[in-house]
Specification:
The chain folds into two domains: 226 residues, 3-Layer(aba) Sandwich (Rossmann fold), CATH 3.40.50.300; 92 residues, Magnesium chelatase subunit I, C-Terminal domain (Helicase, Ruva Protein, domain 3, Orthogonal Bundle), CATH 1.10.8. 44% of the residues lie in helices and 15% in strands. It has 13 helices and eleven strands. α11 packs across α12 and α12 runs antiparallel to α13. The radius of gyration is 20 Å and the shape is globular. The N terminus is likely disordered.
Length: 319
């Protein structure tokens, strides 16, 4: 039997936990003190979702994406989003080739297993929309033809806080395509001292070695779907979702897609922590990352998007 057996109990979960530890250890050599964020990013991939990293410039957003691509053994491309980027710069373009007297589609940088959409909110909404079909359907359409994207297909988008000059806020329809949103924040003082005394962290990338293969990732994704979800846990998940829809401080709550993403993310988080079934703490851990960017609070509320998800967890008791 394969070491990544599809049974969610026994060897499958044990192996998943071990591999998650190896991934965290490898990436943690470059991104110091951010083990939880690394594990959430890995969880997002295993849940077949996409990741949005929102934080200030210079905290390691791009470096995290590059480190993950190397440790996960994925083909990596980076797209630098700017105000003048066009959809064709992302998807690709058909070019007329004289010898064949025909147009041939030249694939853009979106055709990779891990795509870094860097500073995505500096592009116009027209360019941002080029990602919508790709993220949802894992395919793109150009000149009436449909082209499949490679598997796995994982978009990590970075964005600067929307208060910064030259940004275009992502519309709700695109935010909902991201399974998770995380931030990295400033390093703790002892770790920042280590950064100051050490070498450039980018110089460490060539020394990282792949921990997983594409086949391993596919097995882990299949194993996660077998993680048990009890009726009581589903009651808790639905209670959280219902609160976001009914509470007066929110303009609108989680969509059905957001609810499904919440359970899928909790399955994967449970698996990489060695749990054969989802526990309430698994759901509570992933909830802020899954729900925070999807919730919209009224303008007159004293809360912010950042702490809205935490308030939901405090308000809804575990059954």
């Amino acid at each position: 039997m394969d070491t990544l057996a599809l049974a969610a109990n026994g060897d499958g979960v044990v192996r998943a936990k071990d591999l998650a530890g190896e991934v965290t250890g490898q990436v943690g050599q470059v991104i110091l003190g951010k083990d939880d964020e690394i594990r959430l990013a890995f969880t997002c991939l295993l849940a077949r979702g996409h990741l949005l990293i929102e934080d200030l410039p210079g905290v390691g957003k791009t470096l995290l994406a590059r480190s993950l691509a190397r440790v996960l053994g994925l083909d990596y491309r980076r797209i630098q989003f700017t105000s003048d980027i066009l959809p064709a710069d992302i998807i690709g373009v058909s070019i007329f080739e004289q010898p064949a007297s025909a147009f041939r589609f030249h694939r853009g940088p979106l055709f990779a297993q891990l795509v870094l959409a860097d500073e995505v909110n500096r592009a116009t909404p027209k360019a941002q929309s080029a990602l919508l079909e790709a993220m949802e359907e894992h395919q793109v359409t150009a000149d009436g033809q449909t082209f499949d994207l490679p598997e796995p297909f994982f978009v990590i988008a970075t964005q600067n806080p929307i208060q910064q000059v030259g940004t275009f806020p992502l519309p709700e329809s695109q935010l909902d395509r991201f399974l998770m949103r995380i931030g990295l924040g400033y390093p703790e003082e002892p770790l920042e001292r280590k950064l100051l005394k050490g070498n450039d962290r980018r110089s460490m990338l060539p020394h990282l070695h792949p921990v997983l293969s594409v086949e391993d990732i596919a097995h882990l994704q299949a194993t996660a779907r077998q993680v048990h979800v009890s009726e009581a846990l589903l009651d808790y998940a639905q209670a959280l979702v219902a609160y976001t829809r009914d509470a007066p401080q929110f303009e609108f709550g989680l969509s059905p897609r957001g609810a499904v993403d919440l359970v899928n993310a909790a399955r994967c988080w449970a698996m990489i922590n060695g749990h054969a079934g989802i526990r309430p703490e698994d759901l509570k851990t992933v909830f802020p990352a899954v729900a925070g960017h999807r919730l919209r609070i009224h303008d007159d509320s004293s809360s912010s998007d950042a702490d809205a998800a935490v308030q939901v967890l405090e308000a809804v008791p575990v059954p």
